[in-house]
Amino acid sequence: MTDDARTIRGRATAVLNAGQALRAASTTERAVWLADAAAALNRHAGQAGPTLSEATGLSAPMVDWASRTTLDTIREDTLLALARTASRESEPPSAPIAMMAVVLAGNVFTASVRGILVPLLLGVPVLVKASSKELAFPAMLKDALRRSNANLGASVDIVAFPGGDVECETALVERAAAVSVYGSDETVAAMASRVGHGSIIPHGHGVSVAYCGAEALGGKQRSDTIANLALDICAYDQRGCLSPQLVFIEAATERSARDFAAGLAEEGLEPMNRTLPRGPLPASIGAEQAQWRGVAEVEGTLIRGTSYGLAIRSAQAIRWSPGYRNVTIVPVRTIDGAFDAIEPIGASLKCVGTDPASISNVSARLAESRPLQAYACALGSMQTPAVDAPADGFPIWHGLLRPSKTARGVTAKRR
Amino acid sequence: MSRRSDLKGRIESMIAHFDGGGEVDPALRDRLIEDLATWQASRIPEYGRLQLQGDWPAALPTDVFRFRRIAAHAKEDDVRVFSSSGTTSSDRSVHAYGDLSLYDLAARAAASRMLFPDVAQIRLVMLAPHEKEALDSSLEYMLTRFGEWFGSECTWAWRHAKLDLDRLTAVLSRAEVAGEPIALLGTSFAFVHAEDGLGQRRFGLAPGSRVMQTGGYKGRSREVDSDLLLEAISDRYGIATPFIINEFGATELSSQLYETTLREAIHPPVGPRRLWVPPWVRATPVDPDTLRPVEGDKVGILRIDDTANLDSVCCIQTADLAKRVEDGIVVLGRAAGATPRGCSLAADQALGAR
Predict the structure, then answer these.
(1) How many Cβ atoms are within 10 Å of A278's Cβ, its own excluded?
(2) Which ipTM was obtained for this model?
């Protein structure tokens, strides 16, 4: 499906016009409709597993897991809590913007859920440019919204066109008060050139890491740490910006780091490949994988499994992997070693997954850090952010509300 | 006799035997690859760390040449160090040679067979710099040797880091008038520069004229689809497309692979356009997970076992996607920072800037 500029303009107008009815409903009504739509889609997504699997390149069990865990976060209570927080923190009193355009990326298909539902919750209609690689899920989401409530359904539409088509990009954004862009930094820059940087809400390049304190590596916690880490690594085949690329472990010796990595491989990643198998490896990624694994083997230690690779390397010799379950384990003596290594990542660091004993320390370190804007979360939940989890250092409602009368200079608070 | 001398002797005889018109037994080549790998693993610690890949010796990824010196000889014994193009040192592969005699032997034998199967000498026009202008380039080294071995006359049309269009036009016009065949050798981006600079000028070069182009663009010119460039070159110089061939080489290799069409136009039967693999080389598309050969004509990543790589590593894992076509190989392109890794690019740059 490819739309031309005329079609896109027509849909933009229709969505914009539907905004009035959407805003006329109460927040509670919108939350109920959205929760109903999510529940309905959750039921339907299971049946559409093969289609989604083919469209996304993820295995059918992974598609099922991803749909379920994402849609489960969309409940009436969580949505209402989010709306209350947004209202409370958006001082002075704010009103929803007239319309948002959302540009979706293709790497994590469920990113469309928060990207579309949060604006609708706050009364903002949405025109979505779906990734050319993945149209199926946004279309199912739109259908579920339409079935839940006609006004809600009219407030969202989907368009598709090849990236770089200036006429279509202009048509997408010209009536939008803000444009939320998921994708590469190049995509973000291209869209910014159409609308100006002030109206862009960028979700560009990003990586995430995990940190495991010494306590989490042994005793009773070891098996939980391994299970949770394995899930974070395998979720979405490590294709998302919330996927851990590096796992810092507080290990006194290299030997203990190797032992933990061996445990992660045998007890975590190997079984995970049976329950949530990796999707087919694209040839170009395979070529990168072979290079990354070979370099890891030459320069450090590599544990190679059925569909994963674990490199054990020092913080001074990190090389980014192509994803697809290829992870670097970095032994550090203390949390300081981990933060020394990640601070240069700056705003590109999205999330730090960590064990229960370390989470308050990691959160405090992130709050203190000037260059980092990432948030901390529990291991095992890196890829299943709560509906109100921040995005790129900003609240998820950033850009959706504008001061209704005065003080137009005030913007959403960071974190 | 030292182990190295013994191995070198076996490689020399294999290439010389082929160059003299003989057939090379693949089993002999495979044994030589095994022996080379064993010796090299004992001399080069980085290579020795790699695990066996099934019953084949491990293949060293080309990326390792970017980060480590890969040589079985001491640095003070280097006679030449080739490096690939790139903007930073970590982008550049480095291949140190203590001895270029096998490189020369392999390059000459392969070019004689595939690029000059019908002529001992020919007028050469290089769309590339002379080696004096690019001492660290293996391509320029090879082309300079070609000038010595195969050139009845040799004109270097790429000088001072740019294409000398006047010189190129003059030499082509002279060849056109003389009705003498000519061989144009150079990089793909140089041919694109020529396309952009020559405007409406067309040449009708004599039958037997030929083109060898090599390498990617690396941001040094606009990128042109390979089929379109083939047509454009044919149209520009009046050379039939079978006489326009690609050479596949790499800094990490000592041997080159050539497309088959020129030789097959001269010595039929004619098959599909594909890369010919010299018999002292084993080129195999492998599965990226298992690193074992893929079945049939499935796309894999190209592993090249080049016996002429005596003093570095013979078994090389490239990042090129390739498939088998009849008795040859078709390279489908290089994996270039595909999408998921693109997600990490900004961070990669941040770490690189530390």
Answers:
(1) 21
(2) 0.88
